[in-house]
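Cont'd.
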Amino acid sequence: MPAVAETLNTVETLTQSTYKWGFESDIEMDMAPKGLNEDIVRLISARKEEPEWLLEWRLKAFAAWSGMKSPDWSKVGGHPPIDYQDVHYYAAPVKKPGPKSLDEVDPALLAVYEKLGIPLKERAILAGVEPDPDERPQIAVDAVFDSVSVATTFRSTLAKVGVIFCPISEAVREHPDLVRQYLGSVVGPSDNFYAALNSAVFTDGSFVFIPKGVKCPMELSTYFRINARNTGQFERTLIIAEDRASVSYLEGCTAPMRDENQLHAAVVELVAMADASIKYSTVQNWYPGDANGVGGIYNFVTKRGACRGARSKISWTQVETGSAITWKYPSCVLQGEGSVGEFYSVAVTNNRQQADTGTKMIHIGRNTRSTIVAKTISAGRSDSTYRGLVRVLPKASGARNHTQCDSLLIGDQCGAHTVPYIENRNMSAKVEHEATTSKISEDQLFYCRSRGLSEEDAVGLIVNGFCKDVLKELPMEFAVEAQKLLQVSLEGSVG
Amino acid sequence: MNVIVPPARSAIGNAGGLVEQYRAMRLELPGEPTARDLAADWLERHELPSRRVEAWRYTDIRRVWETPFETAGATPERAKARLGALLSTHGLADDAAALPRLVFVDGVLSRALSRMPDGIDVRPFAGVDAAEPLRHPMVALNTMLATDGMVVRVPAGLDAGRLLLVSLCEGIGGRAVASHLRHRLVLEAGASLALLEIGEGSGCYLSDGVLDAEVGASAHLRHVRLQRDSGEAFSFSMVQATVAERGAYDGFNLALGAVLARHEVHATLSGPHAAVHVNGAQLLADAQVADLTSVIAHDAPNCVSRQTVKNVLTGRARGVFQGKIVVARVAQKTDGYQMNQALLLSETAEIDAKPELEIYADDVKCSHGSTAGALDEEQLFYMRSRGVPVAEARAILVRAFLDDALQLVDDEMMRGVLDEAVAAWWRGRAA
C-alpha cells in the first residue's frame, strides 16, 4: 500500500483532532436490519448466494457463539459493554452495472479513493474499470470497502502463474472445494467468542491460493475500510501456500471518524505446506478515538497460521497504531518438522487507547523454531500490554524459542505491561524470554537535542531506533509508511 | 477435635461443605468470629478457582477438597521424635540449644517443644483481624479456620537474631489433618529478625499457612523457608508483607516436598528506598507440582525488588513460576529485576512460567528473563572429558545451576541448612 504512505507526507493534518481519514462517504448501501439472529445469518448467506454447507457452517458457529461469553481476561477494559444486537451485520454497496470508464463510477466512491490517496490507475481498477494490460504495477490490491470486496486488481497477471487472489465470497463460488477444505481448519468456527461471531456473519475478505512451487510474482495487498455507520466489519481472510510456494501479503487499514465505537472482528487463517512460506504484514491505523477516548474502533481479531508442512515458515509483522481497543494475537501452530514461526510487532498507544496484543507460538513438531520481537510504546493516558504464549509440547524435541519484549513509556500517565506465558514440556527444547521496560534515556535525548533536533524529532528518531528490529521486517513501502505513522501517533505526547 | 467432612462430590468446586462445617463450630475457634464470618461468606459466594481462572491457570487446587481433613490435633510423642530428627538432619543440633523456636504440631503450638525467644514480644494467638481483604481462596480458608499461629513483635532498634519456626503435621491414626496457621510478625523501626521456617510431616495432610508481616522503617526481615512436606501433602503458604521506608523483606523459599504446593508472596513496598527479594528454588520429582507465585507492588519511589528463582525438575514433575511486578504511578525510579530458570532433567517434566510486568510509572528500570532447557551437553562433555563420571558431572552442574539462587541467602547458618537439604534431595534421586 505505497499509496497510503504518500498521503502521510503532510503529517500535521493527521493529528488526533483532525483524523485525516475521518470522512464518511455517501454511497447507497444495501443494509440488513440491526441485530443478530439465525435469520440474519441466513440472510447474509442468501445474499452471498452461498452453498448449503457454508450456511450450515455459519449456523453452527452462530449456535456456538450464542453460548459464549465475551472474554474478560485481557488488560483491556473500561469500555461500555458491546451491544451485539445494535449492529448492522450486513452492508453492501448497491450493485450497479460495471462502469466503462471512470466517468461512470460513483463520484462518492472515487472521492473515497482520492482521500485514501490511491493512484488514479488503481482507482479505476478498484472501481471496476478494466486496466491497461501493458502496465504492470507491482502490487495487487483487493480493497474491502465495508463488507464487500469491491474489486480485485491484477488478477490476470496472477492467474498466469496459477495464483488465486480474489474476494472470499467469489472463491466460495469458483473454488468451493479449496474453500471447504481449508476454511475454519486453522481457526475453527467455535474457536473463541469473536472468531465464532465472525464465522457466523463474515461478509467478505480475501482468498489467496499459491499452488505448488510458485513464488507469487508480486506483493499482495488488501485494505479494509469501515465505512457505514454501525456496521461491524467481519472480514475473513484465508491464505494457502502449497508445497514450496511463497507469498508476501500486506494488509493496511484506515477508517472514517465517527462518534460511536465500532466493532471489528476479523479472522485471518494461514496455511503453509512443506517448504512454503507466508509473510503477512499489517499496518493498522484505524480511528483511535479522540483525545478523551470518545469513538474509535474496537479491534478484536483472531489471526493464526498453521505451519503444516516440514520446513514451512509463517512470519507475522505488525505495526499497530490505531483503534481504541486492540485485542489481537497473531499466532503460529508449528506442526511441520523444522517449521518456523516469527512475530515482529510494534504497538503504539496514545491518548486513551488500549492495546492487548502479542502472539502464540505452539511448538508441536520436532526442531521447530520461533522468534518473537515485540516493541510496545505507551504515551498519553493509554495502556499497552504484550501478552504472548510459547508452548512446547512433548514431541517438539529440539524446539527453540527466543522472545524479546521491550516497552517504552512516554509520560507518567500511561501503562506498559508484559505478560508472557512460557510452557515447556520438552527437556531438549530451549526457551528464552527477555523483557525490559524503560523510558527514553535522557542521554539519548540530550545527544539528539545538542545536534539541533527538536524534541519531537529526537523522540521520533529514538522511537524509530527502538522499533528498528521490527520495521526492518516490513516490506519497503510499508516500512517508510510505518516510520511516519509512529511519529504521527506520538504527536503531542512529549514536551 | 473438629472433624471436617469433605463436601459431597457434587459440591466440589465450591467450599460450601467446609463453610457449613465452620458455621457449626464457629464459636469454638479462638478470637472474635467477625473475620472468620466474612471469610465464610466470601467462600460461599465464590467458586473455588479452576484453571480457567487466570491466577490459578497452572495449579489446580480442586483436588484438595476431595480429601477429608480434620482441623487440628496433636500427637506429642511422635511430634517430639520428629522434631528431634528434624533438628539433627538439618545440622541444627549444635545451634539448637541456643536457637529459640516455635513449634506447631498439627496446627497447634506445642509449648513443650518450643523454646521461647528472649527480648521479643510473643503473644498467644487471638484470632485474625477483621479488616482482611479477601480475594484468595486459601487465605479465606485460613482466615475461616485458623487455629493458632506465631504472634511476634520485635521492638524498635532490636536485632532479634534468629528464630526457628517449625510446622509439623503427623495426623491422628492415619487420618488427614489440616493445619491453618496464621502468623503475625511486626518489626518495628530499625528492628531485624532472621526467621527460618521449616515445614515437615508424614502422610496426607493440608498445610495452609499465612504469614502477615509488617516491616517497619529501616527494619530487616530475613525469611528463609524450607518446605519438606510429605510426598502426599498439600502445602500452601502465603506471605503478605508490607515494607516501609528503607526496610527490607528478604525471602527465600526452597520447595522440596508435597504432592501439590504453592508458596505465594504478596509484598508491598510502601515507603521509598524499600527493598523486597523473593528468591527461591523448587526441586521436584515424580508427579509433584510446586508453584511459586509472587506479586510485588511498588507503591513508593526509589524501591528495589529482586527475584531469582530456579526450578530443577525430573520425573513427571511440574514447576510453576508466576511473578508479577506492579509499579504504581508514584513509584518513579523503581528498579525491578526478575529471573527464573528451569532445568528439565526428564522427558516428562514440565515448566510453566508467567513473569509479568505491570508498569504505570515512566522513569523505571524493570526487566525479567526466563529460560528453560536441559543440562548443557557441552558442559557435560567438558567434565566427562576430564574424567568426571557422568552422574557426578550432572550433580555438579545441577548444583552450580542452583547456586545462583542459594548464594543469595546471606545468613550462613541458614544457607548451610538449605545446602544440606539440596544435597539430601539429590542423594535421594541418585539412589
